[in-house]
């Protein structure tokens, strides 16, 4: 209601200003026809009066006031409660535990960028290629370690199998366990061979920086060519050579 009254008043003032402008123009026109000093003074006086009246009577132009944005903190709400907040920014925030785990893994890797790892006895519960012909069981606790490893290195998995059916069985078990989820191990980087010597050849051809295996003979053969090795066994964790470490499990070594 008050806005409408102000608008009407502004219109009235505008009309009055236009009316005075026309009247003043007529008066000035008459005075200019008389070129005496008095007439010129009168014209100047009328001009000054006109300018003063125009400034007083002209309608004021109201500028829109900018709207104030509400402050979520002032309203007692956190930034996550504000509609339209980008949740993707929250995904990059890591917990202190995740930071510590990442630092531990980088330290245990010791700068190794390419890692090769045996499946039997490390990733899988089975202990021999013969067992894989009947069943394949992925260790539940190892999936998270493999996923974290892929963030810090190029990871290859490999195993000795006795037939093509076993290959398919192993790949199916790994996929069901989520090993091939986005950001995890690539399915194309799971390699199979028919002999233990074939696994040794894989490691050398890939020029691995770190190899993980349960066969001490393979570990010993590769010690001349591979910078670091991890021997998974029941023996006490430690270091049996300058470049050979031991651990009871993959997850225990990187914990």
Structural features, described:
The chain is of the alpha/beta class and 255 residues long. Helices cover 47% and strands 13% of the residues. The protein contains 10 helices and 7 strands. The chain has helices spanning 2-32, 37-57, 88-91, 96-109, 129-132, 143-152, 164-176, 196-206, 216-222, 250-253, and strands at 114-118, 154-160, 190-193, 210-213, 228-232, 238-241, 244-247. It has a 7-stranded mixed beta sheet with strand order 3-2-1-4-5-7-6. Strand 4 (210-213), helix 9 and strand 5 (228-232) form a beta-alpha-beta unit. The longest helix is centred in the N-terminal third of the chain and has 31 residues, at 2-32. It is globular, with a radius of gyration of 43 Å. The two termini are 72 Å apart. Mean pLDDT is 76; it is low at 59-64 and 70-97. Keywords: Membrane, Transmembrane, Transmembrane helix. Pfam families: HAD_Pex22 (PF22978). This is Peroxisome biogenesis protein 22.
Question: Notable features of this structure?
Answer:
alpha/beta; 255 residues; globular; 10 helices; 7 strands
Short description:
With 255 residues, the chain is of the alpha/beta class. 47% of the residues lie in helices and 13% in strands. It has helices spanning 2-32, 37-57, 88-91, 96-109, 129-132, 143-152, 164-176, 196-206, 216-222, 250-253, and strands at 114-118, 154-160, 190-193, 210-213, 228-232, 238-241, 244-247.
């Amino acid at each position: 209601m008050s806005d409408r009254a102000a608008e009407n008043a502004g219109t009235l003032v505008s009309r009055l200003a236009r009316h005075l402008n026309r009247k003043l123009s007529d008066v000035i026109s008459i005075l200019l026809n008389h070129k005496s000093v008095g007439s010129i003074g009168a014209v100047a006086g009328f001009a000054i009066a006109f300018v003063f009246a125009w400034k007083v009577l002209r309608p004021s132009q109201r500028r829109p006031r900018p709207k104030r944005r509400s402050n979520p903190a002032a309203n007692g709400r956190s930034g996550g409660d504000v509609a339209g907040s980008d949740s993707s920014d929250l995904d990059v925030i890591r917990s202190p535990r995740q930071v510590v785990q990442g630092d531990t893994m980088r330290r245990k890797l010791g700068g190794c960028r390419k890692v090769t790892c045996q499946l039997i006895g490390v990733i899988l519960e089975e202990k021999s290629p013969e067992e894989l012909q009947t069943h394949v069981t992925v260790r539940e606790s190892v999936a998270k370690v493999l996923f974290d490893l892929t963030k810090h290195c190029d990871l290859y998995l490999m195993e000795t199998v006795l037939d093509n059916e076993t290959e398919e069985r192993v790949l199916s078990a790994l996929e069901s366990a989520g090993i091939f989820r986005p950001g995890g191990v690539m399915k194309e980087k799971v390699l199979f061979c028919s002999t233990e010597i074939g696994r040794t050849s894989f490691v050398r051809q890939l020029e691995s920086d770190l190899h993980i295996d349960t066969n001490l003979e393979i570990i010993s053969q590769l010690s001349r060519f591979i910078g670091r090795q991890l021997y998974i066994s029941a023996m006490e964790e430690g270091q049996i050579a300058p470049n050979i470490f031991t651990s009871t499990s993959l997850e225990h070594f990187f914990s």
